[in-house]
Please model this.
Amino acid sequence: MLGKRGKELWIQTSLADELRAQQVGDYVSFVINQNINFTQYCIGSCRFCTFRADHDTSKEKSSRMSLDDIAIDVEKAIARGCTEICIQGGLDSDLTFDYYLDMLKTIKGKSQQLHIHGFSPAEIAYMSQISDETVEDVLKELINYGLGTLPGTAAEILVDEVRRIICPEKISTKQWVNIILTAHQLGLKTSSTMMYGHVESLEDEAEHLVLLKHIQEISQGFTEFVPLPFIHSNTVLYRFLGARPSSTGMHDLALYSTARLYLGEIIPNIQTSWVKLGPKFAQVTLNSGVNDLGGTLFSEQITKSAGGQYGEEKTVEEFLDMIRDANRIPAQRDTEYNLIKTFD
Model:
């Protein structure tokens, strides 16, 4: 299915669209959220990332946010009507585990109603390392301080041969899976993702999807699947290591439709990425099995630093226009896909 092109692809996308209508209806959902990338400092060496700042070379004061900075962003989010704060950052060697707990405390101190969607499995592994606590104990403490769900990022491609090329120092496939399953066992739901369009093969992509389905069959803890095309322009992986210049439009549609056809029964929410694909093509994916547009974000630095060209935020009005123009029904949701409001 991932390799379909031409008329066969259009048949596949039509089938995916029909299945989407059967599984989740005609709503296209979105969440009003604020993205907070709290530190650029990172001990990692992911070859697709240009967001990272090195302690030895970067002296920019803005590379790490103080708790006061975070509090200001949260206040802005509340004023904008956000229901979710999404927090992720680099693996900063100057931060202690207490900083992460204090960050959660700061956010919840501004509003107990805000849902915190935070910390990739790579960040959880790092917290375990710097705190000398188990992953389970780290997650329990984060939950006690207000963490609501976990982003299933840092997955990239869940094939270790690929990971050794694109992110050799990052957590392994086994570590990622164990952290995700531990989170699910503790009642902490997560998203699931795949970054594609670089050095992986179609077989690698298929292996990744099979693994996600297997995890969901065990735990039922994934809220959605989010394919994320590689943004190549400024990356070492593209400039020096022979990666492809991201995906093609045809492959994007093949992947989204495959996700619906293969995962839709067990992961019914398939999310497109307007920040990576752009709003026009994200709109096209709504006819290929997609039922969610993601979040307003209001501030998104990671894609922008890699060469993303589609901005850092979308307003609710822009989402409504995109969805209605696709002849679908807009719906505001919370992080766990409970509908808050529909715009019939």
